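User: What would this chain look like folded?
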Amino acid sequence: MSWNIDTSHSEVTFTVKHMMVSKVTGSFNVFKGSLEIDEEHPENSWVEAEAETASVNTRDERRDGHLRGGDFFDAETYPVIAFKSKKIEKKGDSEYKVLGDLTLHGVTKEVVFDADYAGQIAKDPWGQRRAGLSATTTINRKDFGLGWNVALEAGGVMVGENVKIEINLEATKQPEQ
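Assistant: Here's the prediction, encoded as structure tokens.
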């Protein structure tokens, strides 16, 4: 059964170390995707999603402008970050490994998301079926050509290499006629 991501009840966020002592969290305001959920045979499930790089939001317009530019996402050249699953494995009652290709900044690398499937409801107040899940992974941004940084006087660098990606999704399926 194919589902569409309900973007008003979902989020795509990232966290990266800043100046070696704190973390900055951001999100993408514009994203979309679809998935197939086969609860009986999870290996038949799949997900495809993308986020618009120009929609990055860290609650600081100057930083967001820098992230959209050539030092980072280069949103004009690489307008989307895309993920397409290749394999889904059940690891526990509601736990799964989702292996797939992440394309960021023109580079495609295989990543594994740790996912937690929250299940489904048969009918919401508007007559739609709903499903929920969350997923996390950590990537090294340099693997995707995002190498910009500044050395700090006291040692270390301004921006950490590891980026945690967290996705919380609610998906909808219209009732079958």
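The longest strand covers residues 107-121. If you want, I can go into more detail on any region.
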